[in-house]
Amino acid sequence: QVQLVESGGGLVQPGGSLRLSCAASGDIFGLNAMGWYRQVPGNQSELVAIISRDGTITYAESVKGRFTISRDNAKNTVYLQMNDLKPEDTAVYYCKVDGRRFTRYYDYWGQGTQVTVSS
Fold first, then answer.
1. What is the pLDDT of residues 72-113, one digit of tens each?
2. What is the pairing mode between strands 67-72 and 57-59?
3. Which pairing describes strands 113-117 and 10-12: parallel, antiparallel, or unpaired?
4. For residue 99, which of 4, 18, 19 has the smallest C-alpha distance?
5. HSE-up of residue 30 (Cα within 13 Å, Cβ side)
6. Which of 31, 110, 10, 101 is nearest to 73 (CA)?
7. Which of 104, 93, 98, 35 has the alpha carbon at shortest distance from 69?
8. Residue 100 to residue 107: CA distance in whole angstroms
9. Which residues are CB-neighbours of 26 under 8 A, at least 6 positions away?
């Protein structure tokens, strides 16, 4: 099993910043990608940003230039620095990690953290 502990959500005004963190622990042998998805009630979840163990990064077009994803492999932690936040960024943000134990693929999701952008 893998445990994911997320932190850093909250309420912020438009134009403000937040930093999300997600620490992975447990059976994380073969851990590869770590990333963030978000979901608004009634909508499908969408990829926000993802970073592989070798540092390859993918961003959603809507967050490019405003959000920065990074990871600390020694701490098995991924961060999402969110700047210039907009009301449309309001969502529950979920951390997701994946990897491979020998031939078996695995993925795990965090419990989610609410981000609300409002004046």
1. 999 999 999 999 999 999 999 999 999 999 889 999 999 999
2. unpaired
3. parallel
4. 4
5. 11
6. 31
7. 35
8. 9
9. 1, 2, 3
Write the DSSP symbol of residue 88: G
The DSSP 8-state label assigned to residue 64 in this structure reads T
d(CA 111, CA 86): 23
Question: Token pair for residue 79?
Answer: 């961060």
CA distance 104 to 114: 32
Residue whose C-alpha is closest to residue 84's, from 62, 53, 113: 62
H or E element at residue 75? none
The residue type at 115 = V
Nearest residue to 116 via CA among 65, 82, 79: 82
pLDDT, tens only, 28-69: 899 999 999 999 989 999 999 999 999 999 999 999 999 999
Length of the chain: 119
- What are 68's strand-pairing partners? 81
